[in-house]
């Protein structure tokens, strides 16, 4: 199936959890710990929503 559809989809480089983070535990904690990536996105999103007029 991959070879049959290879021309339709660009090649995507594969990565490992350990290649991006130090460990699987770090991969979990980085976005989810207090003050982590999720909190940063949520805080930024809430700040933007607070400045928008209500519908």
Give me some keywords for this one:
0% strand, 4 helices, mainly alpha, flat, 55 residues, 58% helix
* Beta-strand content bin: under 5%
Q: Tell me the total number of β-strands.
A: 0
Structural class based on helices, strands and sheet pairing = mainly alpha
Q: Round the mean pLDDT to the nearest integer and report it.
A: 80
Unreliable residue stretches: none
Oligomer category: single chain
List the helices and strands in order: HHHH
Count of discrete alpha- or pi-helical segments spanning 4 or more residues: 4
How does the major sheet shape up?
A: none
Write the layout of secondary structure elements.
Elements: H1 2-5, H2 17-20, H3 24-32, H4 37-51
Short description:
With 55 residues, the chain is mostly helical. The chain has 4 helices and no strands.
Structure overview:
The chain is an all-alpha fold. 58% of the residues lie in helices and 0% in strands. It is built from four helices and no strands. The chain has helices spanning 2-5, 17-20, 24-32, 37-51. The protein is flat, with a radius of gyration of 19 Å. The chain starts with a helix and ends with a helix. The relative contact order is 0.08. The mean pLDDT is 80.
């Amino acid at each position: 199936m991959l070879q049959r559809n290879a021309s339709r989809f660009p090649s995507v480089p594969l990565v490992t959890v350990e290649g991006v983070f130090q460990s699987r535990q770090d991969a979990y904690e980085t976005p989810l710990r207090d003050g982590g990536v999720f909190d940063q996105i949520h805080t930024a999103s809430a700040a933007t929503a607070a400045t928008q007029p209500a519908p």
